Hints:
Shape of chain B: globular
Strand content of chain A: 5-15%
Strand content of chain B: 5-15%
Shape of chain A: globular
Largest interface: A-B, 37 and 35 residues
Largest sheet of chain B: 5 strands, parallel
Helix content of chain A: 40-55%
Order of helices and strands of chain B: EHEHHEHHEHHEH
Oligomer: heterodimer
Number of helices of chain B: 8
Structural class of chain A: alpha/beta
Radius of gyration of chain B: 18 Å
Structural class of chain B: alpha/beta
Amino acid sequence: MESRNNNHRFEFYGEGIPGVELSELRGRLIVIEGPDGVGRSTQVSMLKPWLESNGHAVLDTGMTRSALAGKGIKQAKAGITLGPISLTLFYATDFADRLENEMIPALRAGFIVLTDRYIYSLIARAIVRGLDRSFIKACYGLALKPDAVFYLRSNVGGLIPRVLSSPAGFDYWESGMDMHLGNDLYDSFAEYQSRMLSVFDSMIDEYGFEVIDATQPIDVIYRNLQRRIGRHLRELY
Amino acid sequence: MRMYGDHEFPGKLFIVEGIDGSGKSTQLSLLQQWLRREGYMVFFSEWNSSPLVKETTRRGKRKQMLTPTTFSLLHATDLADRIERHIIPPLKAGAIVLADRYIYTAFGRDTARGVSPRWVRELYRFAVKPTIAFYFRVPLDVSLKRILSARAGLKYYEAGMDIGLSDDLEESFELFQGMISRKYEEMIDEFGLRVIDATRSIEEQQNEVRAIVERELVDVPKRPLPTRPTMNFDLEEE
């Protein structure tokens, strides 16, 4: 019924989710990825009103907020009671719940789904904690391939100002303290995030990330994202 | 990260599988008592019992918010937690771990719900391969008679109501159990399940199970609890 959408079709990374008719998904899926403190949520909060002012309906979403597993994950992290495999699978449950109950219905309704993180952060966390790459990849075979993945790339030094601008300072999990990498939060943060960055970098080609230099000022990054997203959405006008 | 078949431990893992009403839990409990009496360290782990995940599963079931995919992932999370916490450490310590239901329950149920067989098998690759996986095979009409006469009420997911087989709870349960039973049959060769004829007497089944288990225990250390009193009520020494 809409000729403009004829050549757009979603695919799953792997086995996918039973019962989802891909041809019914008319929206677009745009992902902002990158490490902790790189400024993803700032960009999402600017991009959403911009897209809406251009006439797009937007669903913005992020990690660990699903109605099903969000609460359990928060409890697990508070008590640090889950091992690396179970935490990975708990995250995958949370992701699947949001994919099936938020993102896919929005895509079906023709929304632009703008997500702060997607499977890549979850994959990176698992790989840094020693899980097998092929295992993680197979788990996330349930995910939809996004229309675009913008990887906000920085270095460890570039992440610290934003982390310290929050009253809580260095966070236990963002510092990978469960991995016992350093004597204090700073040492651990630096080591953990540098490992995360190298895993993110290793995924650029495999998942077709569009790399954005996130050491630049916020407004430069924002204009860069606007330009690139605009290109992806041109066919919708 | 060690995968299915790669683990090596001094302990042993015995698991039981079968549809509801096959009598597997009774058999496992009898096996547990015998092993304890023989002086082995025994640790018991039950399907879907990790405290943290259980709460999420309970909420998901109560509010009927689980899809086949999240149902599958939550149960995998539960087993991963138990593997990391309750199964691997005792196996390392040389204990015998007994599990009521294991990954084959997930393969049967989840694929009956339409989840991809390949995906769900990948999902559980972290699992320790059991020393022996017993499959208690029972004709559907026998197990249904046992279950439906003993139970107050069937539950929504247990009866497979979520996949819309029938509006009637009991009919849906019967159809769902039949589908799972066929999945078990397909898994016998794939995973080398040890089939036990669950239509025979409890005693006959238990004797067979004990004989099979005993052969695997040659180099397993016996370490009875030092504080336990010796109870000599079984006089028929063999």
